Amino acid sequence: MARSLAEAVEIVEGCFAAIAKHDADGLVAHYTEDYVLELPYFKPGEPLVVEGRDAVHAYLVELLAVQHMDLALTGQHWIANESLLIAEYQSHGHFLDTNEPYQNSYVGYWTFRDGRVCRIREYYNPQAPRASAIDQDG
Hints:
Blueprint: H1 5-20, H2 24-28, E1 31-43, E2 46-51, H3 53-66, E3 67-79, E4 84-95, E5 101-113, E6 116-124
Parallel strand pairs: 1-6
Antiparallel strand pairs: 1-2, 3-4, 4-5, 5-6
């Protein structure tokens, strides 16, 4: 469990730094073994839920191969008794194959346990271009 807003923000910023470096191993080092990633707006009518650190790692390797993102926190609200950080953040980056720019805004519900992230439910602007072309079925 993250014990404070400062600790939670430090962990989130470590995740963002790993994403910027395309470091899937470094990113999942911040996650518990039973980590769950929920993206309710992944595709219209098709939320994405990836369960388990190994499955999320495989997803991230694919994502980081097609997209570069720098993420920055723009707001946060800490709910201590739930070890929950409600975070607002923005991304700026581009798709690696086309160099097409990518920007988005997010609200993420980051839940912590034992100093790691155990769940993220992330809401983002579904109108912005996104790397949802990664096919989870195949």
